[in-house]
Specification:
alpha/beta, 7-stranded mixed beta sheet, 6-stranded antiparallel beta sheet, binds flavin-adenine dinucleotide
């Protein structure tokens, strides 16, 4: 069957459904296509399920620490992995079915379930249906990158997607990769009761962060008994009876990690390889990310790329922000640009890391004269009261502009506290506005103005 629409959206991740809502409200007749699970990565195998699991892990952690707070818990603290998974599934499902029913009941929106491929710059095929439109929005997201590692074809391994089916406690989980996805799983499974080893080929964990942030993250994980193996430059894997054996170096007698399960978390790749992009003329870069301009327009007029498939940010909020930019430009006559957004994200280890703007290393690299201030969580009374003194916060300010350049808050509430700083950055206000603000006691945020009173030149 052939169908002519005003717009086609491929993928129901974090940009597609909201865009469908806005386009149909504007009176357009649209088609949206999903090949697997409504809501995409965040809802089914990313943010929502992992943060739900992190919450279960935190409950186990706090139960084990109950005595620190004068609370007696009798008996062993055990985690029922089937119940943990059931809770996670229920929360994911609520979100997934909510999106599905919203799209299917949306006036002007036709939902196609199947794999979409371009047949021309204006045509997309889904099974028997050939759809056409003058506007096509690609929101196909990404999936776990499987590294080219010797032995991988002879062992079973897990990714963030298959981890969602785990309803048992791995005896020993080896995780290849030492960044955001890896570290969340590492701490979570350690708290559930597994032995966990993180194997990272770089010299430190979360290598994009400043060294002091990486070091503090490592301390947090080591303190909970996560094993960390760094500088594992040349890895290979093999099966040895019940164990997966990871060789972590090429040199003779190199250390190996023997584990019951192997999780690969070394990055993401875009879902652009089986999209028929060659027939549409849309250009991709060497890693398959769709190339686009600051308004998210691809190399072909009438085709936009939103979310993880464009490689500009790999977060739910960046994908959603892509939707907001495209909708504002197409429907609101605005000229919004991705260049205007300030990088911001969190890492949901516990305590979490909230980040905004430049790192200290970025600031040095760019040769910006800056001021810096730092405060350990041991000097934040809210953190002490809650028995969570790990981490620190750090802020960077332009020496001439007096504008905040960036910040890291690794500590309790860090994922929330960072927004007060981020908003001042968006406002373009000098740091003194935040320094003079009266904040509520006792909070972590109340120490941000105090910290700003301690700025010193960045050496
Ligand atoms: C373990 C993990 C934890 C994460 N935690 C966080 C977090 O805490 N915070 C955060 O901001 N981000 C987090 N992320 C990242 C976040 O999940 C993604 O950045 C976000 O989901 C990207 O959304 P998207 O809109 O680009 O596409 P996706 O959500 O990936 O959706 C793309 C959709 O397109 C569909 N699709 C693909 N190809 C086709 C095709 N050819 N035809 C039809 N349909 C197709 C897919 O099935 C999918 O449903 C996490 C990611 C992972 C893996």
């Amino acid at each position: 069957m052939a169908g002519k629409y005003d717009a086609i959206i491929i993928g129901t991740g974090q940009a597609g459904p909201s865009l469908a809502g806005r386009l149909t409200q504007a009176g357009m007749k649209i088609a949206i296509i999903e090949r697997k699970s409504f809501g995409g990565t965040c809802v089914n195998t990313g943010c929502i399920p992992t943060k739900t699991l992190v919450a279960s892990a935190e409950a186990a952690y706090m139960a084990r620490r109950a005595q620190d707070f004068g609370v007696t818990v009798s008996g062993d603290i055990r985690v029922d992995m089937k119940k943990v998974k059931a809770r996670k599934d229920a929360i994911s499902e609520q979100s997934r079915t909510g999106i599905e029913s919203w799209l299917k009941s949306m006036d002007g929106c036709t939902v196609y379930e199947g794999h979409a491929r371009f047949e021309s710059p204006r045509q997309v095929r889904v099974g028997e249906d050939l759809l056409s439109a003058d506007r096509i929005f690609i929101n196909t997201g990404g999936r776990a990158l499987i590294p080219d590692m010797p032995g991988l074809d002879s062992v079973d391994y897990l990714t963030n997607s298959s981890m969602m089916n785990v309803d048992f406690l791995p005896r020993h989980l080896a995780i290849v990769g030492g960044s955001y996805v890896s570290l969340e799983f590492a701490q979570m499974y350690r708290r559930f009761g597994s032995e966990v080893t993180v194997i990272e080929k770089g010299a430190r964990l979360a290598g994009r962060e400043d060294e002091d942030v990486s070091d503090a993250i490592r301390e947090i994980l080591l303190a909970e008994g996560v094993h960390v193996r760094l500088d594992a430059e040349c890895m290979s894997v093999a099966q040895d009876q019940e164990d997966v054996v990871v060789q972590t170096s090429c040199s003779n007698g190199a250390p190996e990690v023997r584990a019951s399960h192997l999780l690969l978390a070394v990055g993401r790749r875009p879902n652009t390889d089986d999209l028929g992009l060659e027939t549409s003329g849309v250009s991709v870069d060497s890693r398959g990310f769709i190339q686009f301009d600051e308004a998210l327009r691809t190399s072909v007029p009438g085709i936009w790329a939103l979310g993880d498939c464009n490689g500009r940010g790999a977060f739910t909020h960046t994908s959603y922000n892509d939707f907001e930019i495209v909708a504002a430009n197409i429907l609101g006559g605005e000229s919004r640009s991705v260049a205007d957004r300030i990088p911001a994200y969190a890492m949901y280890i516990d305590p979490p890391l909230g980040r905004a703007g430049l790192t200290e290393a970025d600031t040095r690299r760019q040769g910006i004269a800056a001021l810096v201030a730092k405060r350990p969580m041991t000097r934040v009374s809210r953190a002490v009261e809650k028995g969570r003194e790990q981490g620190f916060m750090k802020i960077l300010v332009g020496a001439e502009t007096k504008r905040i350049l960036g910040a890291a808050v690794l500590g309790i509430g860090g994922d929330e506290v960072i927004h007060g700083i981020l908003d001042i950055m968006y406002a373009g206000a000098p740091y003194t506005v935040l320094q003079k603000a009266m904040h509520i006691h006792p909070t972590v945020s109340e120490l941000v103005p105090t910290m700003l009173g301690e700025l010193a030149p960045l050496e």
